[in-house]
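Weekly modeling sync, notes
Attendees: S.R. (lead), two postdocs, one rotation student

Agenda item 3: backlog of single-chain predictions. S.R. asked that every request posted to the team notebook include the full sequence so nobody has to chase files. The rotation student volunteered to paste the first one in as an example of the format we agreed on. Action items at the bottom.

Example entry:
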Amino acid sequence: MNNKDIYNAWKEQKHQVETSEDFTDEVMNQIRRYEQNKRKSLFDVQSLIELMSAHTLAKAGLILTGGVVGFIRVVLMFRMVLE
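Predicted structure, as returned to the notebook:
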């Protein structure tokens, strides 16, 4: 058998497969159930961003933390250079 005969045989076999009337509805329902049952990730970046943007103190704390970390990095860099 050449490739064309094999392909045509496969195509004929595929045409003989029967699906139920509500096959697509069943598949879509399974997809919806899967999406609803998916476990939320433990670290959700989107909710963290929403939390930070909604609270002024959280934004101030984040900026302060960044400033302190940046200052510590500069101090450590100067200390390494001067030694």
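Discussion: group reviewed the output briefly. The two ends are 80 Å apart (CA to CA).
Action items: rotation student to repeat for the remaining queue; S.R. to check formatting next week.
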